[in-house]
Structures are given as structure tokens and as C-alpha cells.
């Protein structure tokens, strides 16, 4: 994909269904304490649109895995509509994170970046751990580890030392979008953890869903990366 194809004018029409369904979710504003199949459908609709967006970008192992992660995300979204299915939703999202970070790959490794993120994740888990009960005492730390690994691998793909290339390379923009998307995804889940297990956060649902949808969009944008460019034999890339 060249820079012209990567332009906003090229991408915007393909994202229109996502924008419409996302706006509809916030306009309908179905109360969180009124779970229903309709509420689940409205909540999942933007993710279904992103699945379509990714699949329309072409066929490749990378794109197929992104789409599969989005499928698990939509399952998690549906489960989380009902409070009693919170562990099930977390498990589905755990699968999504696992698929995401294996899709992003482990080259370049950048272990120091990972160490920083794991320390931050550990601090958040420690903050809420006293309020966890039952399976969540095991499940939430495991999910946090998967989520932080996804963040590590998404950000490790982007070379912050070559920021000027953002203006020259379409792929750099797309990897940057994936990096920002992963950060927003983590912020969304962090707000969930704090609002559910630590303290009341006014308008938490709005913050959770806005950062979540934006995060999934950023990650999904990486499906437009050019995977056909020649690579140096001495360098492994995801």
C-alpha cells in the first residue's frame, strides 16, 4: 500500500460503518443496569464493523489473526453486558490479548520497555487485589499479564527513535496507530478495574467505551500495513 492509498480519503469510507455504530452506541445510551440482547448487539456492533474492515483489507495470517482477536473481543463485550458473566468476558478478552500479542510478534524484543509495563501492571493489580473475590483473585492478575504483554508488543513494533519517518512512511503511521490503540485499550481496562474494584468513577462507562473503541480502531488500522516490502535477511520482524 502506498502513501496515497493510505490517505484519510482512502480509509475513511471503509470506516464509516464503525463510526456510525460507535456514535449510535453513545446516542442510544442503554443503561448499564438494563442488560439485554439488544444492549449486547449495540455494544458489539462497532467491533463487528472492525472485523469487516480488517477482512476487507485482504487475506494474510496477520489480518486473519487480527480479525480473530476482534471476534473474541466481541464475545467479551457481550458477556460484560451481564454482571454475572464478568469472568467469562474477561476470559474472552484474555484470548483476544493472547492473539494480539502473538500476532505482533517478539521482534524487536525491547525487554526494558516490557519491564516498565509489567511493573505498572503489577502496581495496578496490587491496588485492587484486596477487593477481588473468588476466581477473580486468579483471573484478573492473569488477564493483566496478557494485557500488558499486548501493550509491550504493540509499542515495541514502533521505533520511537525514527519519529521523523512518520511523515515519510505509511507503515510508520499505521504502527503508531497500533501503539496508541494498545495504550487506549489498557487505559479502558484500567478504568474498569478501578471503577469495579477500587473506587467510584463518575461517567466511568463513557470513558471505558470511548477509549476501548478508539483503542480497537488503532490496533485494527495495522491491518493496512504493507507486508510485501522486502526485508533484510538479518532482521526479523513481526
From TrEMBL:
Q: Is Transmembrane helix given among the entry's keywords?
A: yes
Question: How would you classify this enzyme at the top EC level?
Answer: hydrolase
- Catalytic activity, as annotated: a 1-O-(1Z-alkenyl)-sn-glycero-3-phosphoethanolamine + H2O = a 2,3-saturated aldehyde + sn-glycero-3-phosphoethanolamine; a 1-O-(1Z-alkenyl)-sn-glycero-3-phosphocholine + H2O = a 2,3-saturated aldehyde + sn-glycerol 3-phosphocholine
What topology does the record note for this protein and the membrane? Multi-pass membrane protein
Which superkingdom is the protein from?
Answer: Eukaryota
Q: Which residues cross the membrane?
A: 12-30, 36-54, 88-106, 113-129, 135-152, 173-198
Q: Which GO terms describe its cellular component?
A: membrane
Instruction: Name the UniProt key words of this record, in alphabetical order.
Output: Membrane, Transmembrane, Transmembrane helix
Principal localization? membrane
Query: What are the EC numbers?
Result: 3.3.2.2
Subcellular location per UniProt equals: Membrane
One example GO MF annotation: alkenylglycerophosphocholine hydrolase activity
The positions making up the signal sequence are none
Looking up InterPro entries in the UniProt record yields: TMEM86B-like
Protein family according to the UniProt entry: Belongs to the TMEM86 family.
Q: What is this protein called?
A: lysoplasmalogenase
The source organism is Xenopsylla cheopis
